[in-house]
Design goal:
Helix content is about 70%, strand content about 0%. The protein is mostly helical.
């Protein structure tokens, strides 16, 4: 029966810790903006040009040759 009291005490303590952490983060504004992260992925900041694989391989080979010399 003593273990039951210990388990209840541990679970209530852990719940209290999580509640305190949640309240601290809520006051700091962690949960204020819940829409923009989901929408931000839809907008491109800049357009990157894709290089053909042959050009990338040739650049890597050139850099390896220069390092070996």
């Amino acid at each position: 029966m003593d273990i039951l009291y210990l388990m209840i005490l541990c679970s209530v303590s852990l719940a209290a810790v999580f509640l305190v952490v949640f309240i601290i983060n809520a006051r700091r504004g962690q949960f204020e903006d819940d829409e923009s992260p989901a929408v931000r992925i839809l907008f491109d900041d800049e357009i990157k040009e894709e290089k053909p694989l042959n050009e990338e391989k040739s650049k890597k080979e050139k850099s390896k040759k220069e390092k070996s010399e």
